[in-house]
Amino acid sequence: MQIDFIFSILILIFSVVIHEVSHGYSAYLQGDNTAKYQGRLTLNPLKHLEWFGSFLLPLMSYFFGGFIIGWAKPVPFNPYNLRNQRWGEAIVAIAGPLSNICIALFFGLLIRFGILTQFGQAFTYIASTIVFINLILATFNLIPIPPLDGSKILFSILPYHLQNVRDFFERNSLFILIFFIFFLWQFVIPLVSWEFTLITGLVA
What we know:
Blueprint: H1 2-29, H2 34-37, H3 51-65, H4 88-112, H5 121-141, H6 149-157, H7 163-171, H8 173-184, H9 189-200
């Protein structure tokens, strides 16, 4: 179990780093250099990790919930520098979960088409863990609760007369997020398991 946990933490760390770098590059390609100037367009984990989201939360979620979830320090960007003022922030937001989905698809299809079986069960197991963790990250971050990416996507399409909804979520985001993680996440796990089976052909 200890080896499984260490592997899972390492996979989580590199997955959240790729997630955050994807945000930064998305903003950079739209004309914002904030992440570049702050040295965040790098895969060096030390530039991205934080104590709570990258270490304490994964430990808590693993030992109390049986799954691993976490995040890295958000990559900064200035929405006023984005060329696309209407959808730019949503594009930056969706780049993170999309990177995790691409990772899950890559390793998941290697499993589905039996490419990894010739290297032994260990490689298939590691690839399965990569797929599952990245699907968890993508699904978790698409939830429309600030500061998760899903909230930025939601707020981009939210009509102006519903601005009070955004204000409520932003004021109470920490409490809503903690409540969701510890009381509602159990209803998301079946969705992640279904996604895993759909991509890999294996039972989660």
